[in-house]
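debug: dumping io for the single-chain case to check the tokenizer round-trip. Nothing else runs in this session.
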Amino acid sequence: MVRVKARWNVKNRKQTPEDMGGVLAVNAWKVAGEVVLHLENEDFQIDTHQQRLDVMEEIMIFLVHLADRMVYGKLEDERRAAVIRAMAIRTAELFQENREELYGPGEYKGPFIDKLNQRVQEYAEYPADEDGPGFAMTRCFGSHVAAQVGERHRKWVGDQMIDIEVPDMMPAFRRAVKMMLDRE
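debug: decoded output
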């Protein structure tokens, strides 16, 4: 089980959208790392650091989209947009830092944001509810993850995402979103 940040360090202060988005991004990063570790432990072919980051990127994009759906109607539209934008920016920064560490200096945020925008439009076509994504969205997500892993078990990764990984990651991520909303 993933441990998510469950308390704010600063009490009695309304959190900014940047605070909220940053906390969601870091918690999503933890969830994504756990999923990658679980996939590796289940012997799915993730052989390189690049593949790990590519799988995490797909998971993070999926979680940004789900966070937006989870806070819809619970935050006023302008604040919701600011929180999700902050989450996306912090997520892009995390990928910038990690890809620079792996590949050296370069522009990694822009391609991440481009992929995020593309995937969010795609996921928006599918239903989701308070419990999380519907089957069709999860299947679509699984196909994006499958494209990032090695050939050996690629055809089974989608099933793994639908049957195991998404159901396992949603409780921790829901806790992170709920904790953020409880401070509102």
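debug: round-trip ok. The longest strand covers residues 128-129.
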